[in-house]
Give the backbone structure.
Amino acid sequence: MFTVVVAWLAVLALCVAAVLFGQTTRTARRRRRQRTRSARVGLFLSLSGPGLAVLFAAAGGAATGAWLPAAAAGAVGVVVVALVGLFLDPR
């Protein structure tokens, strides 16, 4: 039980770090031209994606009862979503 709680706390810390990292994209110096569609999707993924990945992992853990694998999947999901958001909107 202790391992599961620590794993989920690590996932939440990773989620907060990813969202703060995504904030740098949002507060970066803006250019005069409008963002492309891929840049808008990247910005959405950078800001909202990590939280959605944690919610999906928690739902999977609740549905299956396998909380530790769900926490591991949530951590991987947060990292993947943050990297995809960075790739789509690198500024």
